[in-house]
Amino acid sequence: MAEVVWTREALSNLDLIVSYIHQFDPEAAQRFARALTDSAASLGEFPDRGRPSGNGTRELPIVPPYVIRYESDGGIATILSIRHGRQSGDD
C-alpha cells in the first residue's frame, strides 16, 4: 500500500475550493470535501489508477469538473494540486 502525501499547494487548493462552494451550499461543500479526500485516499491502494498527464504526473478525475494531479513512485502518491478540469496542467 502506497503512502498518500498532500503538498501545501494541494491543501491550499482544497481549502479554496471548499470555501468557495461553502458560500453557496455548505452541505455541498462538505460532500465535495469528503468525495475528494476519499478519492485521494484511494490512491494508497491504487496509485496508478489516474490517467497519465505528462511530465511524470497523473490526473484522477473526481467530482466533476475537478481533477487531482499527482505523482506516484509506487511507494508514495504525492498529491500536487486540485484543479478545475479546464485549467492548464502547467502549474
TrEMBL record:
Instruction: List, alphabetically, the Gene3D superfamilies matched.
Output: RelE-like (3.30.2310.20)
- Please list the coiled coil stretches: none
Acetylation keyword on record: no
Superkingdom assignment = Bacteria
Keyword annotations from UniProtKB, A to Z: Toxin-antitoxin system
| Recorded family membership | Belongs to the RelE toxin family.
Q: What is this protein called?
A: Toxin RelE2
